[in-house]
Amino acid sequence: MRLDDIIEEIRPEYPWVDFDEEKEKILAWMKRNPRRILNKRFVLNWVRKHPDPGNEKKDRFVTVEMVQEYCAEIKWNKLAKYAWGRLMSSTWYGVPITNKFDFESAMEVIQDDYARIQREK
């Protein structure tokens, strides 16, 4: 997926981010770090460094119901308790989860972690 395509896909979820400026920064960083892979996860992690200025810390985006619904949709209810434990602060590695993209990205990583833990048992 090209950087322009990734930006166009995620732009609606991050209206406060100046994507023209960030695109130039990403391209410069990638030029200095040619071994890194440019993909959607990389761009999302880059953009998440700019938290939504309109989101108050007291307003949680993530709810236990969202986690349960997500787990039910993928038919993996045992994941819900583990996922809620990781997301109940509405942050992911210190970055606020403020929209559906952030939530789904975090849940994908949590799902992979949980699957790995289950295989190791």
Please, could you describe this protein's structure?
The protein is built from 6 helices and 2 strands. By secondary structure, the chain is mainly α. The chain has a two-stranded antiparallel sheet with strand order 1-2. Strand 1 and strand 2 (95-96) form a beta hairpin. Helix 5 crosses helix 6.
Number of strands: 2
* Main beta sheet strand tally, sense and closure: 2 strands, antiparallel
The strand line-up of the biggest sheet is: 1-2
Taking the alpha carbons of the first and last residues, their distance comes to 36 Å
What is the mean pLDDT?
81
Low-pLDDT sequence parts: none
* % residues in beta strands: under 5%
What is the CA-atom radius of gyration, in angstroms? 16 Å
Keywords:
single chain; 121 residues; mainly alpha; 2 domains; two-stranded antiparallel sheet; 6 helices; 3% strand
SSE inventory with pairings:
Blueprint: H1 3-10, H2 19-32, H3 40-47, H4 64-73, H5 79-87, E1 91-92, E2 95-96, H6 100-120
Helix pairs in contact: 4-5, 5-6
